[in-house]
Amino acid sequence: MSRTDTPAPHPTEPAEGRLRAFVRVRAGGLPGAFWVLWGGTLVNRLGSMVNPFLSLYLTGIRGVPIGTTGLILATVGVGSVISQPLGGFIADRFGRRVALSGGMLANGATLLTLGHAHSLGVLVPACFVLGITIDFFRPAAQALVADTVPAADRTRAFGLLLWSVNLGFSMAMVLGGYLASHGYQLIFWLDAGACSVFAVLVWLAVPETQPPAGEHSAGGFLTPVRDRAMLAFAGIIVVYATVFQQAFATLPLAMRGEGLSSTAYGTVMAVNGLVVIAAQPLIGHRLGAFDKSRVLATGFGVAAVGTTVMVFASTTLRYGLAVAVWTLGEILVFAMTSSVVADLAPPHLRGRYNGLIGMAWGTGFLLAPVAGTRLLLAGSTTLWLTAACLCLVAAAGQLSLAPVLRRRTAP
Length: 411
Fold this sequence. Notes:
Layout: H1 13-27, H2 32-46, H3 54-61, H4 66-94, H5 96-115, H6 120-134, H7 138-148, H8 154-180, H9 185-205, H10 228-244, H11 246-249, H12 251-257, H13 262-283, H14 292-310, H15 316-344, H16 350-377, H17 380-409
Helix pairs in contact: 2-8, 2-9, 3-4, 4-5, 4-6, 4-7, 4-16, 5-6, 5-7, 5-9, 7-16, 8-13, 8-15, 10-16, 10-17, 13-15, 14-15, 14-17, 15-16, 16-17
């Protein structure tokens, strides 16, 4: 049938029209560079199976004790503290594409090294370098979104990126849980391959959005630290990140303590991605209409409920329910965090501002395994109730900071 033919009415056309409108409201009007980044993120997260299973790999395959595993994982956090400020500086100085593609290639090489390491003399430095490379690209990615997406659409765009991350992550967790039960080597190779694909895709298809020469030279490496509002916000994120990282640092160990397998852990963590996939398109485009601090505080509060539910979990189903609850908080926190940073950062410092918030995440990731594994030794109830209290502290801090953020972002 040609396009000029008049088709007979079809009973599904109204539904198809509603579907098109649904997609247009949630995903329409965003630039092509954003969608290349979105697709590359999806591919990368499809292969992201190493980090969630790293504690099981170290204890189960390499025979590292739980306490020592916590310290080794902390080296990933130390690397993360360095990673994003450095990545943000590179993104502002040398371009978004250099930081994105270079970081991904370095991460792939590090993963292969870690997968073939047998001694602590190699495992420890490899984990440290992994911490540097694993999120090196992130400030450049966030800056690229802020560079290319109008302010009114940024919360929606960052929410769609979170959706891409979790779409890939949910599938990676199920596949990773299956592969982990049969050996870990393929996990490292697949993750490294996904990093390489992302690097090539960005280099070939994403235009450079770095501000013009001269403009980006203003401001030093630590300029964002002198922004008190940004520094306070970063402190709040440290608290939340310490709780968030328990999903990878201690949750698999807590589940194993209940007699559950790595496959069960992979299934439970897939719930995280599935909830984001289902819920984010329904609420993500609406978040921009609300006060950012109130949305963030609500997200922290919901995370507190989810970690409290963990106290009563002993089966895969109950752990999955707890993860589903805290994921609703994650949706609110992640979309709004990037949007707040984009509002606060001058265009020529977007990489460095995102680097500072990445440093906050890295600090939380550094604290999480050390504190989490020791709290777990005192009992899972102690661990999860402490995590819930920290989420409430973050919520209170965000509400206290709200008036300052409103003044900074007022038209």
